[in-house]
Design brief:
CATH topology of the domain at 68-206: Rossmann fold
Oligomer: single chain
Largest sheet: 6 strands, mixed
Bound molecules: inosinic acid, magnesium ion
Structural class: alpha/beta
Radius of gyration: 18 Å
Strand content: 25-35%
CATH architecture of the domain at 68-206: 3-Layer(aba) Sandwich
CATH class of the domain at 68-206: Alpha Beta
Helix content: 10-25%
Order of helices and strands: EEEHEHEEEHEEEE
Length: 231
């Protein structure tokens, strides 16, 4: 197999419909049902026993917002948007944990458009187990070395009040980063309290609390392959 160039699968081919899964749904998958008289689908996540401590009810219904096909299409479209704006040789700095699934798909989509970013991660203090931001953001651990003088694409799962992204942006600028672009998988502009320029957005939504595709509520739901709302 060495030396072979594999064609990039089309975004749609990455999709496995729930009915095509074998077994139909793995532990931690989800039961999909339609609400009668509604076009919205409700998913009841199946979580392994023992993972449900705290306020997140692991069986709370999740309203589907963006399924695997829509997410793959949107990530596939973001890559050329980013490649038109940022020359090769940039560094992605992704915020843990929420961006881990998104950034894994994004870097592979970027490879398909000739971009070969370095990838770094930073961890910021999070919402903890609640839904409202604590209002203060802290860096947990170290900043990545080697961002000085480089172009950075800062990637997060959700841009909500803007505090986390503004904090990370300022930290990186303090490290001498040459230029920073911001990419958020989900943007909630109506919730903004701190000004940030989101250069690349996966999905813009209203004031809803989302989970899935890496995004959690009290460490639950990150495993869901789709993005849904918990309200
Ligand atoms: P911000 O600092 O208020 O913009 O919040 C950003 C962080 O809060 C994101 O990185 C997420 O981890 C978390 N967050 C904001 N909105 C949501 C949501 O709807 N679901 C899950 N986490 C969220
Ligand atoms: Mg986050």
């Amino acid at each position: 197999m060495t030396g072979m160039l594999l064609p990039l699968p089309s975004p749609v081919s990455l999709y496995r419909s729930p009915s095509a899964r074998n077994p139909p749904l793995p532990p931690g998958g989800a039961v999909l049902s339609r609400m009668a008289g509604s076009t919205e689908k409700t998913m009841t996540p199946e979580t392994p026993s023992g993972g449900g401590e705290g306020p997140a009810d692991p069986r709370a219904p999740v309203t589907l917002l963006f399924d695997e096909v829509e997410i793959a299409r949107r990530v596939g479209a973001l890559a050329p948007e980013i490649s038109r704006a940022i020359a090769d040789g940039f560094t992605i700095v992704a915020l843990l944990k929420g961006a881990f699934v998104f950034v894994a798909d994004l870097v592979r989509a970027l490879d398909g458009v000739g971009r070969h970013p370095r990838v770094e991660f930073i961890t910021l203090s999070s919402y903890g187990r609640g839904r409202e931001s604590a209002g203060t953001v802290r860096l947990i651990g170290e900043l990545p070395a080697g961002v000085a003088g480089r172009a950075v694409l800062l990637v997060d799962d959700v841009a909500d009040t803007g505090r986390s992204l503004a904090f990370a942006r300022d930290l990186l600028l303090g490290q001498g980063t040459a230029r920073i672009w911001i990419c958020a998988l989900v943007d909630k502009p109506s919730r903004r309290e701190v000004e940030i320029a989101v250069d690349f957005t996966g999905f813009t939504i209203g004031d809803r609390f989302v989970v899935g595709y890496g995004i959690d509520y009290a460490e639950q739901y990150r495993h869901l392959p789709y993005i849904g709302a918990l309200d």
